[in-house]
Amino acid sequence: MPKIEKWQKKVAWIVSIVLGVAILFIASILFINSSLFDEYVVLAVIVTIFLPAVLNLVDSQWKNTANAHLPDLFHAIVQAQQTGMTLPQAIEESSKRDYGPLTKELKKLVSQMSWGISFEEALETFAMHVDTTLVKRVVPIIVEASRSGGRVEKVFEPIGKFIQATLTLEKERKARTRPFVAIIYVAFFVFLFTIVLLFRSFFTPVTQNSLLLGNAMLTPEAARRLFFHMSALQAFFGGLVAGKMGEGTINSGLKHSLILLACGLLIFILMI
Q1: Rg of the chain over CA atoms, in angstroms?
Q2: What is the spatial distance between Cα 42 and Cα 39, in angstroms, rounded to a whole number?
Q3: For 30-86, how does the pLDDT look when each residue is reduced to its tens digit (9 = 90+)?
Q4: Going from the N-terminus, what domains does the chain have, and what CATH number goes with each?
Q5: Quick check: pTM over 0.85?
């Protein structure tokens, strides 16, 4: 699975926003006075967030896989240092093994050192390229340990344990928050199911003309439009909340918003 660079994410957002604006512009010309305009607005939102959501998902999986290989990497470095190798030599020896996504970045680090770049600069570049929270926390400690000298392998052992404990806690957190993410999905689909029942058993059979709601006359078409707006808002913001609770970032919620918006749009088009 490839790593998604920041510039690729920016390009994806620019292209997606342009496509979304184009859809809105066409819809505003052709369907501005029609209920179809609302559906095209939701379609524009789906098109806008589709590519960024996919890239964010791929990048998130890449980073999770990279973090999962960190304990093996540190264990290999400690073993190499115990044979008498220096820290740069130990990293070079460890780079010959497979650590998933980290392997390519390790080889880049070793290549930079062979070109004359200092170990500290190469390690900081490695942290910048991998770009995970764990690596950013660990690399400064390694740099300081390298500067201070002494038995650096004694630093790597507790760091490895810290990484393993952090990954375990992250798995437990995701397992505990997964039911809350499921609740958001269940609540949304129960809401849609209720709307479908209302329109099939109440709005349409009772009257084809209008429904007295308070002091205003609410037609079935106006009711459909009102519920469509409500479902779209619940889908978008509910997805963002699901991402924040499940993975800790708003960007992770884009995929949930995408799924909920697409399901809501399809149900309204096909069943209401």
Answers
A1: 26
A2: 5
A3: 887 777 888 899 999 999 999 999 999 998 888 888 888 888 887 887 777 777 777
A4: 66-168 (1.20.81.30)
A5: no
